[in-house]
Design brief:
The protein is an alpha+beta fold. It has 5 helices and 4 strands. It has a two-stranded antiparallel sheet. The longest helix is centred in the last third of the chain and has 17 residues. It starts with 12 loop residues before the first strand and ends with a helix.
Length: about 110
C-alpha cells in the first residue's frame, strides 16, 4: 500500500520554514515491513541537516515566535493540535507501518 498523496514531498526535509533536499540530496526507501512493498522515498537527513534545523530554530526563538506571548503561542499550538486531529488517519497509517513502535505503545497513547 503506497502512501496517499501528501501535501509535501517526503523526500525533502522541512528546515527554516521550507521543504528542501537533505544536504546529500539522497533518499531512503520506506518499506512496509509486513509486505516488503515500497511505500515512498524519504529524506536521508544527516548531521548537517540537523545543524541547519537547530540554527533555524534558534533564529525563530529570537524572532517572532520568541517575541510572541504565551497566549499567542498557545493559540498556535491549539491550531496545530486541530491539524493533527484533521489528519489523524494519515498519521495513524504512518504510525502503524513503523516497525520500531510496539503495539502496546500505540494502545497507551490512544487510551
Amino acid at each position: 500500500m503506497p502512501l496517499p498523496n501528501l501535501p509535501f514531498n517526503p523526500a525533502f526535509c522541512f528546515i527554516d520554514g521550507q521543504w528542501q533536499p537533505s544536504s546529500t540530496a539522497q533518499t531512503l526507501g520506506l518499506i512496509n515491513p509486513s509486505s516488503g512493498a515500497a511505500l515512498s522515498a524519504i529524506a536521508d537527513g544527516r548531521p548537517e541537516d540537523i545543524d541547519l534545523a537547530v540554527v533555524a530554530a534558534q533564529r525563530a526563538a529570537r524572532g517572532e515566535w520568541g517575541r510572541s506571548t504565551a497566549l499567542e503561542r498557545g493559540r498556535l499550538l491549539v491550531r496545530l493540535g486541530g491539524l493533527i486531529l484533521e489528519h489523524v488517519e494519515l498519521l495513524a497509517q504512518d504510525w502503524l507501518l513503523n516497525p520500531s513502535d510496539a503495539a502496546d505503545d500505540r494502545r497507551r497513547v490512544c487510551l
